[in-house]
Amino acid sequence: MKQFPKFATFLALGALTASLALAADPDAAAPARAEAGRTTSVPLSPDAPSAYVVQKGDTLWGISAKFLTQPWYWPEVWYLNPEVQNPHRIYPGDTLRLVYDAATGKPQIRVERGDQVKLEPQMRSTPLNEAIQPIPFEIVAAFMSKPSVVAEEDLKRLPYIVAFGDRRVIGGAGDVLYARGVEGSDPGSRFNVVHVGDALKDPDDGKVLGYQGIYTGSGRLDRAAGPGKDDFAKVLMTDSARETLVGDRLVKDRLDVPLDFIPHAPSGPVNGKVMAVIAGTSVIGQYQVIAFNRGKHHGLEPGNVLSIWQAGEKVKDRGPGGAANTNQFTEPFQPSVRLPSERAGTVMVFKTYDRMSYGLVMSAEDQMHVGDSVRSP
């Protein structure tokens, strides 16, 4: 069974003092909790625990949701204990405590290490790769190794198949292929093969931002390319899902996206459109990956949280009498109106490009579809 590398969850010091976009608008946030004279704009959950012991398999998003009604407010309440070794990371067995600052009355979440005594500098016994992740690691890893969407920027650098052995024109399991662009990989490294499909265009201006990616099979690097310009990498295909063609691309069978971010709102307003969903489905659900037409150029970065708004349905306005006012002759002349958009879910960005991003749907309150909006939360 293949193993993916894991990344520790780092809580950035700079994010702790940053004012989130919603925090400046008390009407946009959930009602604040007031207890014994304490009032805060941070939207604490009504049933937030006073303490929580981190479990194996937890995610930072899930833990945040236990304490907050809006998990992207986490940087507002996280408190770095200066007396604790490695305060930036959270591990299974650690205890998170909800306390209130004596001077300001604001809530804070503090960590108590599960395997060391406070105030004594000790080496932690838990490996760094056991630190909790911000979002489910396996889903992101699976998508990145077998992408159903290939960004334009990735396409330019991915290795490609030049030819198959034995003069074959179509490849499959057991066949040898020769490729250009395979660099920095040792023999035995695994690659997935992706066929580039239809273009993915920005709904705003029609610019091509990516392409549909179709998984065709996987293989093992048998021989790395030499230094000569006419030398090729040799790959033995071990699995096949459909025919593989000359020109298809190779994608490393490992995660190359560092998950070292925390959930937080974007620094400015965002309003984009969902362009594609993993596996090519049209209905979006929880823990599905989506691609949308906003990226670094629009101020997005990994960890940003956005809301998904279901596009309002287009209907006929038949007037006060409704259907009684309509017949087969008048129906074509009835004015069409679009119903209001409704919030349907939340997505967290984990990979950004210049003008598009990938995000993982963290919650789904209603059905969502390609063409729905992504906006600042």
What can you see in these coordinates?
The protein is about 10% helix and about 35% strand. It has helices at about 15, 60-65, 75, 135-145, 150-155, and strands at about 35, 40, 50-55, 95-100, 105-110, 150, 160-165, 170, 175-180, 190-200, 210-225, 235-240, 245, 250, 270-275, 285, 290, 305-310, 315, 335-340, 340-350, 355-365, 370, 375. Strands 6, 7, 9, 10, 11, 12 and 14 form a 7-stranded antiparallel sheet that branches. Mean pLDDT is about 80; it is low at about 1-40 and about 115-130.
Helix count equals 5
Overall tally of structural domains: 3
- Provide the succession of SSEs: HEEEHHEEHEHEEEEEEEEEEEEEEEEEE
Low-confidence stretches: 1-39, 116-128
What attributes characterize this protein structure?
377 residues; mainly beta; Thrombin, subunit H; 7-stranded antiparallel beta sheet; 6-stranded antiparallel barrel; 5 helices; disordered N terminus
How would you summarize this macromolecular structure in one to three sentences?
The chain has 377 residues and is mainly beta. It has helices spanning 13-17, 60-67, 74-77, 137-145, 152-155; strands at 34-35, 38-39, 51-53, 95-100, 107-112, 149-151, 160-164, 170-171, 176-180, 190-201, 208-223, 233-240, 244-245, 249-252, 271-277, 283-284, 289-292, 305-310, 314-316, 336-338, 342-352, 357-364, 368-369, 373-375.
SSE inventory with pairings:
Elements: H1 13-17, E1 34-35, E2 38-39, E3 51-53, H2 60-67, H3 74-77, E4 95-100, E5 107-112, H4 137-145, E6 149-151, H5 152-155, E7 160-164, E8 170-171, E9 176-180, E10 190-201, E11 208-223, E12 233-240, E13 244-245, E14 249-252, E15 271-277, E16 283-284, E17 289-292, E18 305-310, E19 314-316, E20 336-338, E21 342-352, E22 357-364, E23 368-369, E24 373-375
Antiparallel strand pairs: 1-2, 3-4, 4-5, 6-11, 7-9, 8-13, 9-12, 10-11, 10-14, 11-12, 15-17, 15-24, 16-23, 17-22, 18-21, 18-24, 19-20, 21-22
